[in-house]
Structure formats: C-alpha cells, structure tokens
Amino acid sequence: MYQSRQAFFNQTDGSEQLRLSEILGAFSYALDLTEGQPAGHSIRACWIGTQIAMALGLKGAALRDVYYAVLLKDLGCSSNAARVSEMFVGDDRKLKHDFKLIGPRPEDFGAFLGSAVGVGADPEIRDQALGNLAENVGEIMTDIMATRCSRGADIARRLRLSEDVAQAIAHLDEHWDGGGLPLGLSGADIHLGGRIALLAQVADVFYSARGKDAALDEIRNRAGSWLDPQLCALFEKLSETSGFWEELALDDLPEQLWALEPAEEYINVDEDYLDDICFAFGYVIDAKSPDTAGHSARVGMIADQIGEKLGMGAESRRVLRRAAILHDVGKLGVSSAILEKPGKLDSQEWETMRAHAALTTNILGQIGVMSGMAMIAGSHHERLDGKGYPLGLDERSIAMESRIITVADIYDALTADRPYRAAMSSEKAMDILQEEVGSAVDEQCFKALQTVIEQGLLE
Ligand SMILES: [Fe+2]
Ligand SMILES: [Fe+2]
User: What are the pLDDT digits (tens) for 229-251?
Assistant: First the structure.
C-alpha cells in the first residue's frame, strides 16, 4: 500500500519553522524548467521514489536521503545545457525533453539523432554536427553525463545534504546492466538512491507525456537493462494499489510530499542555511553558461557592499544579497542556443532572452520564503527612463534594492572575462556606468559603488 499524508504527517508542534523539503521542493520547479520537463516533474518523481523507498522498508536518514536524492536528481542539469545545445545544434530544453522519451535501444538513439539534431539549422551545420556525433558520440555523451553527475553531486554537498545524497545523484545515469554513463557501473554497485531516482524519472517522464499505461510499459521494458528489476516489480505492485495514480495527479501533491519527509529526520532551515541554499542555486544558475562562473555570487557580494554604503541594516542587506544572487534564476528557462548565440539575436530571440527577468520574478514568487524578493530580483533590467524590461517601470516605481542589483550586475558583467572580449578594467567599467547615470543607473548606487571600489572592498 502506498503511503499517504495521514500516515506520515509530522507537523506536531505548530511552529512556523522553515522546512528544507518545502524550500528545495519549490526550487525544484526551476530544475524542471532547465531540463525541459513539465512543471512538477521533480516533485512527482520524488513522490514515486519515496513510495518505493518506503515499500523497501527504508526509514529515518536512509529514507530522507532517497527523498532528497530524487527531488534534486537534476541539480547538475544546467551544467551540460550549453554543451547539449552546441553538440546537438538546437534548443537544449527541447532536446533534453525529447531525449528522455526515446526507447532504450541503440537504434532508438540513432533515430533520435536523425530527427532532433540541427532542426531548422543550415543543412551544412546539421551535417557537420551529425558527422561529429557519428564519430565521437561515446565521448560526447560520457562528457555530458559526467558533467551533470559530478556537478549535481557537488551542489548537493553545498546544500549540506549527505554524501549518500551526493553519490545517488552522481549515479543517476548509470544502468543496471552496466550500459549507463559516465562510469558504466552495474547492479548493486549503483547507489540505491540513484537506482530509485532513475526509475522514478522514467516513470514520471512517460506518465506526464503519455499516461500511466505508457509509464508502466516503459518500466517493464527497461527492467533488467536500465533499471533494477526488483525495484521495477515493487513499482508495479505499488502502482496497482488503489489511489496511487490519482494521488500522483493531485494538485496538492507538493503538500503531500512535504509530509512524507521522515519525521525523525525533519530538517529545519535557519537564516544561515537559507543563505547557503541561495549560494548553491547561484551555482546552478551560473553553470547554465560556460562564461558566467561566479557571476551570481559576485553580484550578491557587490550588492551587499553597495547596500552597506547606502546605510542599509544587516537584515535588509541579507535579503538584498539573496535577491542579487538569484537575479538571473530565470535564465534556467531560456535555451542555451539563445544564451550562447555568438552573433546578434533576432527580435524573437531577443524577446526570449528578455523573458528571463519576468521568469525570475515568477520562480521566486512561488518559493514562499523568497516571494518577498521576487520583484526586486526580477527588476534588474528595468531602467530609470522606463525603457527597461520586463515591465518598463521607471524611476517612480523601481525599488532601491533593484537599482542596487542593476549596478552590481552591469559592473560584474563588464569586469568579467567574456569569450569575445577580455575583462574590462574597473575604471573603464565605471566610465561606462557613469554614462548611464540618470537614464539606466541610479546616481546614489553608482556613487556608493565608487566608494566601495575606492576603499578596495571588491579586491
Ligand atoms: Fe539578467
Ligand atoms: Fe546577471
């Protein structure tokens, strides 16, 4: 029998403490977006995986670790997005979505390449990409999976999760028969959490796209090849229990899921932990592009310094820094084909690129504890003269915190290395910013940044 909320509901003291499961669960929607999955994929996969873990008899820390491993299995997904887009010539989010729906046989992969690579691209570029894939596909796929797995495990550690969670995430793409990547592990050498996560992923990908019968067919098809056959049998049994599929489709599945976190291992989040969570997601954001390493954290640090010079108190600066770190979280929903396009963007591409700001507001708005800073973070491309985006706000309505983030963002972008130009000197960047004072950039913020630089606080 699958477990429902009533059996595991653990909120007994009525306190208003922040629960790790709710915060990370809310962040998991950003991972779905990056991976091209329908909203709630991570949450549904986690619910399926947790049901399997409980049916196996896991309890306490072991159950908690599977719970977080499945919920956050895609933590590393942004890190291979640019490479997927480059190697397969296309929209990484669509490519990743379609890739998960292909069958397990080599000919399925071949057919996928034929239909998905270079769609809409110049035929010459498409042929080049197919030729490269034909020659180097093993190496390319190993590299793509290795990046995702090691980065995902690393971010799990930054989120203070256990080594078991990190290892389970690192083993997500290993297959029971040894045919997976990047290590080619087989059988019980694959971390149990990784085996459960892959099963739950396949089940929800097919359930969401084609319904429960398709999900069951795929699990049966892959039992013993991709998936641990014992776990598949267990899943099949669970799925026959009345209410299983109905519960998976419930609107309040997230609330049901928070309640499945094992009571004795219940993790609460204090303010320092919340800072670490923001920093960890800053890494997820920066990994989306090969050229933005450290950008989110640096914008957070610069904004904090400007805030201090403007006389903001410690608590307000803490919120400001979190908003600054997460200002580009909406980029996770933008294709790397656009983010990394070397030439000029056409008007439609530009519109998609600009959508990242509104997406930031949207994503943070859905994370209870972050919702108060959603507008602040999502307004970092607004301008005082009203010519910015996404809303075209002007000096009457742009919050001071947003103005601070705007200055910090532009300054960091100018002083960081880019493939098409070397990092600008601080003086040059400040000259450029000065020209924008009054139109795009707030004068007070600019002067505060000047003081921060003069005092050597960014070195
Ligand atoms: Fe931005
Ligand atoms: Fe930025």
Answer: 999 999 999 999 999 999 999 99
Asked if 230 and 301 sit in the same domain, the reply is: no
Quick check: 395 and 379 in contact, CB under 8 A?
Answer: no
CA 13 to ligand 1 center in whole angstroms: 41
Predicted local confidence at residue 248, as pLDDT:
95
**One domain for residues 277 and 385:** yes
Provide the residues around ligand 1 (an ion) whose CB is within 5 A.
Answer: 328
CB 168 within 8 Å of CB 65? yes
Please give the pLDDT value at position 437. Answer: 98
- Structural domain range at position 385: 271-454
Q: Does the residue 210 lie in any domain?
A: yes
Domain total in the chain:
2
The SS3 call for residue 398 is coil
Question: Of the residues 212, 309, 331, 447, which is catalytic?
Answer: 331
The tokens for 146 are 């290795």
User: Which pair of tokens denotes residue 388?
Assistant: 């910015």
Tell which of 230, 252, 269 closes a domain: 269
Q: Is residue 141 part of a domain?
A: no
CA of 143 to the centre of ligand 2 (A): 27
Low-confidence ranges of the chain (pLDDT < 50): 4-15
Ligand 1 centroid, distance to 143 Cα (angstroms): 28
Is 135 part of any domain? Answer: no
Based on the fold, state whether residues 254 and 280 are members of the same structural domain: no
Shared-domain flag, residues 229 and 314: no
Residue at which a domain ends, from 237, 269, 301: 269
Return the closest-CA partner of residue 248 out of 16, 43, 447: 43
Question: 315 C-alpha to center of ligand 1: Å?
Answer: 24
Q: Beta strand 18-19 with 268-269: parallel, antiparallel or unpaired? A: antiparallel
Residue 292 pairs with which residues in a beta bridge?
none
Output the pLDDT for position 400: 98
* Residue 86 lies inside a defined structural domain of this protein: no
Residues 446 and 422 in one domain: yes
Nearest ligand, CA 303: 2
Identify the nearest ligand to the CA of 297 by its number. 2
Q: Check: pTM over 0.70? Answer yes or no.
A: yes
Residue 94 burial (10 A CB sphere; 0-12, 13-18, 19+): middle
Contact status, residue 412 vs residue 294, Cβ threshold 8 Å: no
Same domain, 279 and 415: yes
Question: CA-CA distance, 302 to 412, in Å (whole number)?
Answer: 8
**Alpha helices per DSSP H over 265-313:** 271-287, 295-309
Whether 331 sits among the annotated catalytic residues: the reply is yes
Tokens 């997500």, residue located: 172
